[in-house]
């Protein structure tokens, strides 16, 4: 069920746009669907796709969601000290000496936070920041999950240099014999499956992507299984994390994977419209006011140039959502101070009316607003700060 533009307008009638909302009915329905797809395997909530402490806490309060996956060590220590979660994995290696010192100085944070490594150089960096003889730091070893069907062909994100099971166990042996470190987990993120829709393009393109994902998933299951079994021979792993919103089913089917990561599925940005096996409900929206009528079929909105990260192109632009029948102008797009829209619905828009848009990515919308208004039906239940609203900027 989609709330109409009128419902959102009514809920926020006393608020001036630009503003951002999260539809709680859609958020909760998406959370239910993530759990259904995980089929009993716990989901670790990915903070970068939410960036709002109240929404992270809302997700973690539900059975089936266990622990956070943060994108920054400073962010992870912040959450640990606030008590958001006592089980936090930092998904990316850190070079933040100050955050490392805060981690080492806090018994609570050290017990909760696991940092990511993929080489002994990462251990050297920690030693350089903390000095030798520092307390034990929990670490997770990242296995590269890309697909390499032919020499020189790399399909997926550029992450860990650890690709083969032999490489993983070699580094694991060095970690477990290194004073000041405790190897507690493994991770592998299959971005070519989890972050790439198989129904986003046209017929042939979709078939090629589906074929690639099927082959890649089968190869990764064999390689990840072998790597995890080998590492478990030298370390008592607490968790093996994999996947993302787009690959819950295939990742969860692997016996060696103990938990799945997901975040974008809660808010359903436009990049997650193009999957054949699930259809989340748009939950995060932002409203811009009409400030000009330069032509009968064009309405100009204030602000709006919230372009998502990644390869530049139309897929990274925000998308007009409500009222239906609007689109951006190709030659102008979404701008820093104005965003023209056209289409049949533009003819009926008046100055001061609101147009509701969706961001291409989930968490990046929170970097544009200090607060999210949590809407249910035609009412704002609560207004909560984003990371920015709490004065936090983790880069």
The value of Rg in angstroms is 22 Å
**Major β-sheet annotation:** 9 strands, mixed
Uncertain runs are none
Please state the second-level CATH architecture of the largest domain.
Alpha-Beta Barrel
Q: What is the CATH homology-level superfamily of the largest domain?
A: Alanine racemase
**Looking at the chains present, what oligomeric state does this protein adopt?**
single chain
What percentage of amino acids are in beta strands?
A: 15-25%
Number of strands: 17
Globally, the shape reads globular
Structural class by sheet pairing and helices: alpha/beta
- The percentage helix is 25-40%
Q: Within the CATH hierarchy, at the fold level, what is the topology of the largest domain?
A: TIM Barrel
Q: Order of SSEs, N→C? A: HEHEHEHEHHEHEHEHHEHEHEEEEEEEE
- C-alpha termini separation: 35 Å
User: What is the name of the CATH class of the largest domain?
Assistant: Alpha Beta
Number of domains: 2
DSSP summary: helix tally? 12
- The residue-averaged pLDDT reads 95
Protein name: Amino acid deaminase/aldolase
Pfam families: Ala_racemase_N (PF01168)
GO molecular function: D-serine ammonia-lyase activity
Domain Alanine racemase N-terminal: 22-192
Explain this structure.
- The protein is α/β, with parallel strands linked by helices.
- The chain is built from twelve helices and 17 strands.
- The strands form two sheets. Strands 1, 10, 11, 12, 13, 14, 15, 16 and 17 form a nine-stranded mixed beta sheet that branches. An eight-stranded parallel barrel has the order 2-3-4-5-6-7-8-9, surrounded by five helices.
- The chain has two domains: 24-265, TIM Barrel (Alpha-Beta Barrel), CATH 3.20.20; 284-390, D-serine dehydratase-like domain (Lyase, Ornithine Decarboxylase, Chain A, domain 1, Beta Barrel), CATH 2.40.37.20.
- Helix 5 packs across helix 7 (120-130) and helix 8 crosses helix 10 (203-232).
- It starts with a helix and ends in a 10-residue tail after the last strand.
- The mean pLDDT is 95.
- It comes from Amycolatopsis dendrobii.
- Pfam families: Ala_racemase_N.
- Residues 22-192 form the Alanine racemase N-terminal domain.
């Amino acid at each position: 069920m989609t709330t109409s533009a009128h419902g959102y307008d009514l809920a926020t009638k006393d608020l001036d746009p630009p503003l951002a909302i999260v539809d709680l009915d859609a958020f909760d329905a998406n959370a239910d669907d993530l759990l259904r797809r995980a089929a009993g395997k716990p989901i670790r909530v990915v903070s970068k796709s939410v960036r709002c402490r109240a929404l992270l806490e809302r997700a973690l309060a539900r059975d089936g969601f266990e622990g956070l996956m943060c994108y920054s060590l400073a962010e992870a220590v912040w959450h640990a000290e606030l008590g958001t979660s006592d089980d936090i994995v930092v998904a990316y290696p850190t070079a933040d000496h100050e955050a490392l010192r805060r981690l080492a100085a806090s018994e609570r944070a050290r017990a909760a936070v696991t940092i990511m490594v993929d080489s002994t150089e990462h251990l050297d960096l920690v030693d350089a920041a903390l000095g030798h003889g520092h307390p034990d730091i929990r670490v997770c070893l990242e296995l590269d999950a890309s697909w390499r069907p032919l020499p020189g062909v790399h399909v997926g994100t550029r992450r860990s240099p650890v690709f083969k099971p032999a490489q993983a166990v070699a580094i694991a042996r060095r970690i477990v014999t290194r004073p000041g470190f405790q190897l507690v987990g493994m991770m592998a993120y299959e971005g070519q499956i989890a972050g790439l829709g198989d129904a986003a393009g046209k017929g042939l393109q979709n078939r090629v992507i589906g074929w690639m994902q099927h082959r890649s998933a089968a190869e990764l299951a064999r390689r990840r299984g072998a790597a995890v079994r080998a590492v478990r021979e030298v370390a008592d792993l607490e968790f093996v994390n994999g996947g993302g919103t787009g690959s819950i089913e295939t990742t969860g089917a692997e016996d060696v994977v103990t938990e799945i990561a997901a975040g974008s599925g809660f808010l359903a940005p436009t990049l997650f419209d193009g999957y054949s096996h699930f259809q989340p409900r748009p939950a995060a929206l932002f409203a811009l006011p009409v400030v000009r009528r330069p032509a009968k079929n064009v309405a100009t909105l204030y602000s709006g140039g919230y372009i998502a990260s990644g390869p530049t192109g139309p897929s990274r632009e925000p998308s007009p959502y409500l009222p239906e029948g609007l689109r951006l102008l190709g030659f102008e797009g979404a701008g820093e101070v104005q965003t023209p829209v056209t289409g049949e619905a533009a003819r009926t828009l008046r100055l001061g009316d609101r147009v509701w848009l969706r961001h291409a990515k989930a968490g990046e919308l929170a970097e544009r607003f200090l607060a999210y208004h949590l809407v249910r039906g035609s009412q704002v239940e609560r207004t909560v700060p984003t990371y920015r609203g709490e004065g936090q900027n983790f880069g």
